[in-house]
Specification:
It is built from 29 helices and 37 strands. The strands form eight sheets. A five-stranded antiparallel sheet has the order 2-1-5-4-3, with helices on both faces. The termini are far apart.
Length: 1046
């Protein structure tokens, strides 16, 4: 090996040995320098057999020029970047001696000589051209299949039809976007693996669909029409099912196609409804020319407005104006219909006899073939035209391409260059081309030049702005036939969202357009020729055989159409005493015979028809004969069930009679005036004024006014106010027939506020006695204020007297307490005086002893003086509200009563919160405490309780202080508790009944508090009475201003 310690002979021998060992292997071993040129040093002789290269082709650095230009840079870079010892694989293309590039696999290793460490390359070359080309072909095939599947999926998803495909077990294997959206699925893949049982709650319905799938897969295609309930409205679908077959023709599934025909179905239903409605009508209908001159009126019009046909024809609808509808509405009406638009609204029309009728009117313009308005049609109902379109999809499909070919509508895919790349069989038939003849063509090769230019512009706009497009265009076929085509297009985008083509479909709607035009023509003709709707109609021929009956008649009579058609009208309506229908001389037994003999239009309100079950019902009938050459050929009979009308009339008559009875027995005068004159009065008004209804009929209000000079002014003023305010109410002096005047309360209501004189209702009450009572009451009210002041003064005087009496009673108690307080000091003074007298007589009274007696007497006198001061402060009136301690106030009161309580063996306990501070009059509060304690003492003494006890408890309630005073004197009877605070009510033998009443007055009126009374129980036994005083406590924000006590 060159550049190494291995000799050339050794290297050649080594390669020869490798050739011998691996001579049959498709591999070429070599060594090469590890420098930048990578010049081969030794190459096995199998290179010609394996690689198609002679060994000389590897001499020098020229072998690098045989590497494919796209691979050379990468290969040399990888060889030059080898720095680690070990194998490395490369794949690249190498040109053989014939100039053809082969795929070569180079497994090379970086070697190091064991003797001198020289680095070189040793590798093995293999021909992988077949394997590589096969893999690349497979990859290209896979990409082609994916592109085709993406194309087919895009085609299916762009179609408005709902497509579903199932396997042999009726399990869903896929659907398009329209199908997924109809089932509220996010993606079509969500349906895979589901069945009809997952979407239909009714198992029987799902069973039916599965059986139908089995029949389709065994017998062939099927189609049907179904109605599906939905949230907003019913949905109608046309359903087509075809079996799916594989290449051998074996059925492996079924294709289901749903087409939403709800709009067409609703149009069909609306048109049928319109046809039934416009055959006969109970509403007024008239037709005018473009100038407004009446050219046609129906019988209901003449009956409603009182104009016969000759008087109405040639007239103008302005003759119906009543003046009640504003002119602005008529201007809006005329502007609307003359601009080609429909108008509907309410109008107040006037009949020939002057009666006012309100009509809900719908007026539509009628145009001729040139689009010019020729007439106007006034009618109630406006029914939307409809069109009925049905189609189906009945073709056999093979995989996805067969699925598209089975669709009856042309479907195509064209590239961005405008050339058709894929089309289905329907498109080829549409374009009159052989199989495959449309591929590669453009619109200019298929359609007329002008249409092709238009289609190209549409395609370019769709490519520039991807989305969907729906257009209609007119196509002239090669055979000269004309077609209206509805085209659906959608831009086909790649993975990056760029438009690369257009998917579209064509629908031949020529027949739909023809049907639509025919329906429009029939609808216009029905609007012009049909005068009434909604009533029963039947037609008989000259033999009185029924030849036509409309649905309204079928419904009213209770028969079905098949039972009525072909029958003798006498048999259906069971005419009594009917002679042979062929006998022209027989007397007419029913309306049909009457028309036959009279040969004129007959109207009747008193006819009676029979239902199928034999039940009679009244009808209003209009019958017209059919004459051919002057001979009777049949009749058209229109009838209307007036059962409800007669029932309503009876109810109205009964209600009117009841109303008259009620008004005649009402204790007030009621009158109805028309044009300002009496039309009717009730019996009470006859009694009130002395006139009979006949005497007042057609008289004005002035006949009842008291002052003849003001009669006309009174009448005009009342009616004028009635028009301005709708309700007029006042009091007037009216005159009876006897000449007596009296006060009368009047209330009038206008029936029509715009024209009060047209009609008004008046209610009149005789208030003469009420007026006299008001005068007496006024005089009484004038003296009432003086009486109230006098009574108030007396009440205040009584209250002051009660309070003074309470104080006097308390003062009496205090005098008794003073006597108790003074008894001991007086005894002390008596003893001191006796001792002084005794010591003086005995001669033992010295100055020191005298001073001692004087001090003792002074202390006794001081105690008596303090007692007087305490009682004087207690009774001193306080006219200023001030903060005071509740606890301290009670203590001071108890100190005044201590001697009395002690002498009676009564124990007093004061407990609770000693920090309570109230805001008010402390002396009055002390007087209240004194009254309660004295009352408790009296009860304990009177009832001789052995261990008398009075408990006083202080606590806080929210922002108020509570003082509870209870005793153990046995309590108060329940029937006395409610009256315990009443003035002069007492439970004591010698009591005044003032103390507790005064306590409540002080607490509630002077201190804004409350006071209550109850009993205390112990072990179920009444222990004593408990009084609770609640008064407000002083707050930080208390206003300490002085107030004069009321």
């Amino acid at each position: 090996m060159r550049g190494a310690t291995v000799t050339d002979a050794e290297s050649t021998a080594a390669l020869a040995l490798l050739d011998r060992w691996f001579g049959d292997v498709s591999a070429v071993f070599y060594t090469a320098a590890a420098d930048g040129d990578f010049v081969p040093q030794r190459v096995a002789g199998s290179c010609a057999r394996v690689l198609g290269l002679s060994p000389e082709s590897f001499s020098g650095a020229f072998w690098r020029e045989r590497i494919h230009p796209e691979d050379a840079g990468r290969v040399l870079f990888e060889l030059g970047s080898r720095t680690e010892i070990g194998p490395h694989k490369q794949e690249f293309r190498l040109r053989d001696d014939e100039g053809r590039y082969r795929w070569i696999e180079n497994e090379v290793s970086l070697k190091r000589d064991a003797h001198d460490g020289t680095v070189y390359l040793a590798g093995c070359l293999r021909d992988i051209d077949v394997r590589k080309n096969t893999a690349m072909e497979h990859e290209r095939f896979r990409e082609t299949v994916q592109a085709r599947e993406h194309f087919y999926r895009s085609v299916l998803d762009s179609m408005p039809l709902r497509l579903f495909w199932k396997d042999r077990n009726s399990v869903f294997r896929g659907c398009n976007q329209s199908g997924a959206k109809a089932l509220n699925l996010n993606t079509p893949d969500e349906i895979v693996g589901k069945s009809d049982y997952d979407f239909y709650p009714d198992q029987e319905e799902a069973d039916y669909l599965r059986i139908l799938d089995e029949q389709v897969m065994s017998s062939g295609a099927a189609s049907y029409h179904c109605e599906v309930p939905a949230r907003e409205a019913e949905v109608w679908l046309d359903v087509s099912k075809v079996p799916l077959r594989d290449e051998t023709g074996k059925v492996y599934g079924v294709l289901v196609c749903y087409k939403d025909v709800s709009v067409l179905k609703r149009s069909e239903m609306a048109l049928n409804k319109f046809k039934r409605a416009v055959e006969r009508s109970s509403n007024s209908v008239f037709i005018t020319d473009a100038r407004g001159s009446i050219e046609y009126v129906n019988p209901t019009f003449t009956e409603t407005y009182g104009y016969d046909e000759s008087a109405a024809l040639g007239g103008n609808p302005r003759m119906l104006q009543s003046g009640l509808t504003p002119d602005e509405i008529y201007r809006e009406l005329w502007q609307t219909i003359t601009s080609g638009r429909n108008w509907s609204g309410e109008l107040a029309n006037r009949c020939r006899d002057g009666a006012i009728v309100w009509q809900s009117v719908s007026i539509s313009p009628i145009v001729d073939d040139l689009g010019t308005i020729s007439h106007f049609l006034a009618i109630e109902d406006d029914i939307t035209r409809h069109k009925t379109l049905e189609g189906g999809l009945k073709r056999q499909l093979d995989f996805i391409q067969a699925l598209i070919d089975a669709l009856p509508h042309p479907i195509y895919y064209k590239g961005a260059d405008g050339r058709y790349q894929r089309v289905n069989r329907a498109f080829e038939e549409f374009a009159h081309m052989e199989y495959g003849g449309a591929v590669g063509k453009t619109a200019f090769d298929i359609f007329p030049h002008d249409l092709a230019v238009q289609l190209k512009a549409m395609d370019e706009d769709l490519i520039a702005h991807p989305g969907n497009s729906v257009r209609e265009f007119h196509l002239l076929g090669r055979d000269g036939s004309e077609h209206d085509i509805l085209s659906h297009k959608a831009a086909f985008t790649d993975e990056r969202g760029d438009a690369v083509g257009i998917i579209g479909s064509h629908f031949d709607i020529t027949e739909y357009k023809r049907v639509e035009a025919a329906l429009a023509e029939n609808e216009a003709r029905l609007r012009e020729l049909t005068s009434t709707v909604g009533e029963g109609i039947y037609v008989v021929d000259e033999r009185q055989i029924i030849t036509f009956v409309n649905p309204a008649a079928v419904k009213m009579l209770g028969w079905n159409e098949q039972e009525l058609i072909g029958r003798d009208v006498h048999r259906i309506f069971n005419c009594p005493g009917h002679a042979d229908s062929e006998g022209n001389d027989a007397d007419p037994c029913c309306l049909a015979d009457l028309i036959r003999q009279s040969q004129r239009t007959v109207r009747s309100q008193g006819e009676t028809f029979l239902r199928k079950g034999g039940q009679p019902f009244p009808v209003s009938v209009i019958a017209s004969p059919i004459l051919r050459d002057g001979e009777y050929a049949g009749a058209v009979v229109a009838f209307h069930d007036i059962t409800e009308q007669q029932f309503t009339q009876r109810l109205l008559d009964n209600a009117l009679q009841e109303l008259r009875t009620v008004l005649d027995n009402a204790q007030m005068g009621v009158a109805y005036l028309r044009e300002g004159r009496f039309s009717w009065i009730n019996r009470y008004m006859e009694q009130m004024f002395g006139y009979t209804i006949d005497e007042l009929h057609n008289e004005s209000l002035s006949i009842l006014c008291g002052n003849p000079a003001q009669d006309k002014v009174c009448e005009c003023g009342m009616l004028q106010n009635l028009g301005e305010n709708q309700v007029y109410e006042c009091e007037h002096q009216m005159m009876r027939r006897s000449g007596e005047t009296f006060w009368c309360h009047q209330r009038g209501v206008a029936i029509d506020s715009d024209n009060p004189t047209a009609g008004s209702i008046w209610i009149m009450l005789d208030i003469d006695k009420l007026k006299k009572t008001e005068h007496r009451l006024k005089a009484l009210n004038e003296s009432l204020a003086q009486r109230v002041d006098e009574e108030t003064r007396k009440s205040l005087e009584k209250e002051r007297l009660l309070i003074q009496q309470g104080r006097n009673a308390a003062m009496g108690e205090m005098i008794g307490n003073i006597a108790h307080q003074w008894r001991q000091p007086l005894s002390t003074l008596g003893l001191v005086i006796q001792n002084i007298h005794s010591d003086h007589q005995e001669g033992g009274l010295d100055a020191a002893e005298l001073e001692k007696y004087v001090d003792t007497a002074k202390r006794a006198i001081q105690r008596m003086s303090c007692t007087i001061d305490d009682f004087r402060d207690f009774f001193r009136p306080s006219r200023v509200r001030e903060p005071f301690s509740i606890y301290q106030s009670i203590q001071e009161t108890m100190r005044l009563l201590a001697a009395m309580l002690k002498n009676n063996g009564i124990e007093v306990a004061l407990t609770g919160d000693s920090a309570l501070v109230a805001y008010g009059h402390p002396n009055e509060f002390s007087q209240v405490i004194l009254n309660f304690v004295v009352n408790a003492k009296d009860a304990l003494v009177e009832r001789k309780v052995p261990k008398g006890r009075i408990d006083i408890e202080l606590n806080t309630r929210d922002t108020s202080g509570a003082v509870k005073i209870r005793d153990n004197a046995g309590g108060i009877d329940e029937d006395q508790l409610e009256k315990i605070f009443d003035p002069y009510y007492t439970t004591k033998a010698n009591g005044t009944g003032i103390g507790l009443h005064m306590n409540r007055t002080i607490i509630e009126q002077h201190m804004d508090g409350s006071i209550s009374c109850g009993n205390v129980f112990e072990n179920g036994k009444r222990l004593g009475a408990e009084f609770t005083i609640t008064i407000p406590l002083q707050c930080n924000e208390t206003d300490n201003r002085s107030e004069v006590t009321a």
